[in-house]
Amino acid sequence: MKKTILLLNLFFLHFAVAAPGIIEKGQSSKENEVLDFKSIKKIIKNDQLESIVNNKINQNKKNTNRKKSADINRFNIPDERKIWTFLSELWLVKNAQLLKWDFQKPDFALAQSFRAFLEQRGHFEYKFKILVVNTPNVTHFALPSNRGELIFILSLPFIRTLDLSKLEISLLLYEDFQRNELEYFKKNVKTLPFAKMLGTNFYKKKKLETAILKKILTKYDQIIYDEGFDFKQQFAVTTRVDSLLKSDLRLWNTYFQLVKKIADLVKSNLLYSKYNKIYPSPELQLGWLTPKSKKI
Amino acid sequence: MDGLMNKCLLLLFLLFPSTNSLAKVRDTIVNVLYLKNIFGHIHLHPANNSETLTTVACGHPIKVFKKAPAIEGKKIFMGADWNYVKVGIHLGFIKKDILVTQRPKCFQDEYPKFFDSFDLNISELYYWGRLYDHYIRGRSRVK
Fold first, then answer.
1. ipTM over 0.95
2. pTM, to two decimals
3. In this structure, is residue A149 part of a structural domain?
4. Which of A196, A250, A275, B44 counts the highest number of beta carbons within 10 A?
5. For chain A, what is the domain count?
């Protein structure tokens, strides 16, 4: 009796161990049956399911590529066409306390007069911005800007001391405009690393080389407060304005008188003694502007 | 019970004119415009040198009202250059020429990482907005 019970136990034990294997075999054979695409490949092709799958894969690829390129584009650096207005405004913001432009000022109707002046001289489609500052440290300047845009700084103490008329202010701005057209400021400010950096992307580096841009802003400081332009550049600007205004003698005379006024001021007022360094020099300008008498 | 009733009536009485005026304000919103400059200021009064309520960034939607409300019975003269607007909780004034009808292509959206690298502080953001208040702007055109 005991033997039969023992045999039965052994039989059941063997069955319990072997049973899962049998079930697994059964399942895998079923799966093989389901996953056997070869047999239904033709049917799938006829149903165009394959092309739908391919389209979905392509779409997914496109989406991931688009996301990646959008992510890369976030690290773009503006190119030459778009950076200048931004940099100039950044410089104005960082120098707000020094330049003292955040103050209540009278409306000189400068927008209308300078607009009319530009239009009369045939300079169309220029957007200009004039920032009146309350300091004698910076007299007048045209800051680098994007194409078709002009940013001017104009000192209120300077125009008040000289008692300039609207036409004279327009002429002063016109001289700055011509200097801007010759791109002297940009040329003096630009460095090689900065020029190389423009229009590139810093996705791989992940960090912008801000030191290069800080150096540009420091160069802005140097040019505006200390160094200004050289004799050669000033000569080119003066002769250019001279030839542009010669067709209108009234304007030319006003410009000549304006330069004379500035030359006198620079000589007599210590506040503006630096002017000669920035724009060398009103005295020389008068010499360049004075018509040469021919000796027979 | 009577006391509670009285309080309810008083509350209703107080609420009625305010909801009415709110409805009026909502009715007078005529447009949603967007700031086109890098930053801009919402002013307390329609003047460049007026107190700043808040600074908004380029592309920010701004609700524009038909007309400014009368304060203490006195009408505010806005002139042709200003809009009475709502930005968040602030009701104030902003210059018309720095708003556009469609969302503009903003510098900080086009070059976000470049712009963020400058890490501007609050006073610089404020001054950048003020810059556009102080600019004397114009454009020469072909006649």
1. no
2. 0.81
3. yes
4. A275
5. 1
